[in-house]
Predict the structure of Microcin C transport system permease protein.
Amino acid sequence: MGAYILRRLLLIVPTLLGIMVINFVLVQFVPGGPVEQVIANMQGQGDVFDSFAGSGSDAGQDMTGGGGNEKYLGARGLPPELIEDLERQFGLDKPPLERFLNMMWNYMRFDFGESYFRKIDVTDLVLEKMPVSISLGLWSTVIAYLISIPLGIRKAVQDGSGFDTWTSGVIIVAYAIPAFLFAIMLLVLFAGGSYWQFFPLRGLTSDNWEQLSLFGKIVDYFWHITLPVVASTISAFATLTLLTKNSFLDEIKKHYVMTARAKGLSERRVLYGHVFRNAMLIVIAGFPAVFIGVFFGGSVLIETIFSLDGLGRLGFEAAVGRDYPVMFGTLFLFGLIGLVVNILSDLMYVLVDPRIDFEKREG
């Protein structure tokens, strides 16, 4: 097992390098870099994309007209010294290959630099936003498992019954509803949209958080996190329930279950003493991957709808604002975490069922 883990750890390097190379190259061809972003702000357009949308034929004139800098949209009439100074500030005065190599060397030392526009270290920004995303990912995953495993087991035991039929209908509907649409429905129904105002509309804590007692802080935290967690749980809940049911159905039909029943063991003993461990292998081992999926996958829309300042929203705003240190720094971190979690998932398989040997499988 040690050799297998070592090989997987070594594979992280080329995989992560490939991810960074592809994204770095793509960014070089995407219009609207940080220099254009500053120019757009200087000209009162607020955002470089407003400049692209509103300039039309003027953009072509900027690229060809006299006295301007042909490299950047909207730079016509600006002093060349100003453009050169902006390039130096953002490190764009160096060739792309040199910039990429410098960036990767810094990232290998976990030096992610400073945000272009916030003047804060990327590491500090990530740590600042991390609690929101961890809250969403952790609670959504835990609740999904607490509901899905018992429900999936009961559906497997009562396969084909009325209970199995109507719960399957509910699960299919829940899976079909996009998380962001469900989040909007929750806001409309329970956050003062058009009906009741049981939950707050935005944020992770109340304005008077610091003045609350410890118990009050706990209650306030769960009061704020309820709707976002419910919205992000719905798709994972549906998938895990059906996965649990199918795993149990596959195990129940095997010969060792018939043998256990023939020996006179109770149905509960057969189910939880023999079937459970084998059936739950794929479900339990997938916990890290499910958590990372909820942590990164649906966080952007959920955080935006509920006005939560988390990692998903940070990455989205960095991409829109062309804040390259935040973009590539978070991409590197998320890619590294995702690759490590894949190894942890394999280790979970071995912990749940020691009979699994990845080295023999590879051989």
Summary: Confidence is low (pLDDT under 50) at residues 51-68. The chain has two domains: 2-113, 123-362. Residues 141 and 291 are 6 Å apart (CA to CA).
